[in-house]
UniProtKB/TrEMBL annotation:
Pfam families: Myb_DNA-bind_3. The lineage of its organism: Eukaryota, Viridiplantae, Streptophyta, Embryophyta, Tracheophyta. Transmembrane segments: none annotated. This is Myb/SANT-like domain-containing protein. It comes from the Eukaryota.
Length: 69
């Protein structure tokens, strides 16, 4: 990945492999959309965890934070 996203040939390869796994053609455009939404959610989550006192409990899959946060 030379830029912030994959090249078209790579997207097509990802789509092909994904189609083999799920048994239907998902489509490059849908994959790109899901990838971008997941990337935005990750950024928001990382920003949340950057606050002092905010932690992630992987056992319960919950965010722990003081009441004032």
């Amino acid at each position: 990945m030379a830029t912030s996203t994959f090249k078209q040939a790579v997207w097509e390869e990802i789509d092909s492999e994904f189609s083999k796994i799920i048994g239907e053609n998902y489509g490059v455009d849908r994959l790109k959309g899901k990838y971008n939404r997941l990337r935005m959610q990750y950024r928001e989550f990382s920003t949340l965890l950057a606050h002092i006192g905010v932690t992630w409990d992987s056992t319960s899959n919950k965010v722990n934070a003081p009441e004032d946060v």
